[in-house]
Amino acid sequence: MPQHNHSSAYDFVDDDDDLLKKKRKPPYKAPLFLPTSSTGPSRRIVALVLIIAAACVAIGVSGIAFAAAALRRPPRIVTVFRCGRAEDTLRTFRSKSLAAAGREEEVVAQRPKVLAVVGVYTGFGAADRRAALRSTWFPSDSDALWRLDHDTGLALRFVIGWTKDSKNMTTLRKEIDMHHDFLLIDADEDNLNLSHKTLEFFKAAFNLFDAEFYVKADDDIYLRPDRLATLLAKDRAHRLSYIGCMKKGPVVTDPDMKWYESSGKLIGDEYFLHAHGPIYALSADSVAFLVNARNDSLRFFDNEDVTIGSWMLAMNVDHEDNKALCEPICSPTSIAVWSNPRCLDPCNLQDKLMELHNISSCSNSSTLPPEGDDDDER
After folding, report:
1. pLDDT tens figures, 186-235
2. CATH number reported for the structural domain that contains residue 180 in this entry
3. Partner of 305 for a Cys bridge, out of 73, 194, 277, 350, CB 3.0 to 4.6 A?
């Protein structure tokens, strides 16, 4: 009988397993990096990566070198010449200008020594008055103001406080940025009290300037700064000096009248000797006493010139009466010209100042009086 070859069931299973294993064999994966004998584009990619890396390293090294150089360079210092809320805008401006020009070595003094600080009182509604003064006797730009400071020893500044009115403050800041001729003080101009403003002026001026005298002036006078400097530079026997046009007069106790004094009963029928308000000067030692006194230890009267006069009366000061500080017309010896009471009524101050400025004896005459004149007899 013929023999037949029969395969078992297991044989069929084995064959099928081999087939499945072949089918399940994982697909071929290309190597991440081709050998150096591979195609040319891979070389270019590697070269590009190396170039980018080198550029990044170069940039990093440059940044580190720049930072190191910046750290070695001395910092650019801009000084704001301020004491509390008080600020001398001229020196702040000069400090910024020198820093911007890379001239930090030209230091602006923190508290410069001057003959006198002349504070010209002004307000937020007095821009026209300031313009009139700048067109006559007050220097019109910061360079001229700085030169006057060095030529005469007088530091002239417009004196003003602050207000809650943001519009007025913005307008003032623009004027400051243009002229740089203000001494800002810590005084509320909205609730103006001239006696308090005057004390704040003396405090600010004393802390910002090492002066021999501190002068208060109004913005409606015509002043000869050179003659004022000559007056203040004279030798004096008294360290405590109070210089001005001295006066007395009846105390006004009627509240409906101008110059009413609510504390008149403390004074009596007549005022003590004191200087007219438009301009007067206090020596450094006199101002130092006021600066160091506690505010609540000083009595304030309604009128500023009376208040200052009362403080000077309490001190052992020398009352120096000089009528050249209050002349109604220009003369060869006039220092300050103001026509009180004519200008108590509304008047065109700009025209008045320009009229005085065009008079030779006001603006162009010699600083010193003619020979033979004796100032002590005035």
Report:
1. 999 998 889 999 999 999 999 999 999 999 999 999 999 999 999 999 99
2. 3.90.550
3. 277
How many structural domains compose the chain? 1
In a domain, 113, yes or no: yes
Question: What's the pLDDT at 168?
Answer: 96
Neighbour count for residue 208 (Cβ, 10 Å): 23
338 falls within a domain: no
For residue 309 the two structure tokens come to 């006069």
4 belongs to a structural domain: no
Closest C-alpha among 279, 308, 285 to residue 238: 285
Would you give the DSSP letter of residue 357? H
Indicate whether 179 belongs to any domain: yes
Residue 282: which of 317, 246, 233 has the closest Cα? 317
Reference 259, options 327, 176, 341, 354; nearest CA is 341
Which tens digits make up the pLDDT trace of 112-138? 999 999 999 999 999 999 999 999 999
**Collapsed DSSP state (helix, strand, coil) of residue 152:** helix
Instruction: Provide the domain limits for residue 141.
Output: 83-320
